[in-house]
Amino acid sequence: MTEVALFDMDGVLLEGDRTDPGVYRAAAHDALREYDIRRIDDGHASVLEASEYRAEMTDACRSLGIDCDEWWQLRESSASRRANARIRSGERSLYPDAEAVLELPDELPTGLVSNNRRETAEFVADYCFPGRFDVAIGRNPTIADYHRKKPDPEFLKRALAALNVRTPESGYYVGDRGTDVLAAERVGLESILIERPHVDVGTLASEPDHVVPSLREAVRIVTDLGGE
Questions:
Q1: CA distances in angstroms from 133 to 43, 75, 129, 172, listed in the order given
Q2: What residues of the chain score a pLDDT lower than 50?
Q3: CA–CA dist 86, 14 (Å, integer)
Q4: What is the Cα–Cα distance from 113 to 156, expressed in whole angstroms?
Q5: Strand blocks (E) in 48-109
Q6: Rounded CA separation 167/161 (Å)
Q7: What is the pTM of this model?
Q8: Run of H or E residues at 137
Q9: Rounded to the nearest 5 degrees, what angle is found at the Cα of 137, between the Cα atoms of 170 and 177?
Q10: Which residues, 6+ apart, have CB-to-CB distance to 8 below 8 Å?
């Protein structure tokens, strides 16, 4: 009997493997406007508009006279608002098979666990799947939490703790990347990898326990209905 089932968000439930880079570009300037900074040179822009955190951001913020940790938190919050609006408007959609998670048994502890921002993970859980997930975990809007992204198992550990599952004897994490597979291994969960268009199974550093063509097949494994 499955004890717990955790699901990644980007590339598993939401189409596309990450937040659109344009969201971060706009959010960077939203955050700068909080300091009444309306224009920056191209060099600063190329650093601060990047989707991923870069150490150079600290130097760029310092040269602009602002605190990088504070600016990052403002940027993350703005990125969540913009990303959530795109989902609400339908500009970013769920995968057609995402509704399969609604077939999970009500008594099965479930969680959404993402490298994405916590505000967006919680929004997707509540707006797209109301009442389906018992917990939604994402990164907090701090640089320190950004560095805890998978394959670091920290976010999975947070989900298991919130679900009162200390050492899962039978559980799954459904993802779309090698980092998901590694994180699952590190907390004792079986990994289920979905072959989305952006997934190349042959390049993974660690072999998943299951490889499936759709989320519906993943749910069948989780609920012991058979079929891979």
A1: 42, 27, 7, 14
A2: 226-228
A3: 11
A4: 6
A5: none
A6: 10
A7: 0.94
A8: strand 135-139
A9: 70
A10: 112, 113, 114, 173, 174, 175, 176, 177, 180
* E-strand stretches of 140-194: 171-175, 190-194
Q: pLDDT tens across 87-129, in order?
A: 999 999 999 999 999 999 999 999 999 999 999 999 999 999 9
| Core vs surface per residue 125-152: b (16+ CB within 10 A) or e | beebbeebbebbbbbebebebbebbbbe
Picking from 48, 75, 42, the residue whose alpha carbon sits closest to that of residue 60 is 48
**CA 35/CA 12 separation, integer angstroms:** 37
Query: What CA–CA distance (Å, rounded) separates 8 from 175?
Result: 5
What type of residue sits at position 35? Y
Length of the chain as a residue count = 228
Cis, bond preceding 151 (omega within 30 deg of 0):
yes
Q: What is the pLDDT of residue 226?
A: 42
CB 162 within 8 A of CB 135: yes
Please identify which residue in the block is written with the tokens 């039978």.
170
